[in-house]
Amino acid sequence: MDTVTPMNVIVDNLTEMIDLFGDVAMGQGLAPLLVLVGGLLIVFSMGVFGALTLGAVGSLFSSS
User: Where are the alpha helices (H) located in 1-64, listed in sequence order?
Assistant: First the structure.
């Protein structure tokens, strides 16, 4: 029963974060554009470093 309380806190924090993030993302001015560009930068960098990591792991197990 000790794990129920932290999970409730985590879920509550996540739902509150989503609400606050949605308010910021749909704000005035350039806020939606900045959120979109930031998301694209994060997705691109995760993809590049993920591919590099998979290549490094693959080179560990290859003979050549």
Answer: 4-25, 31-60
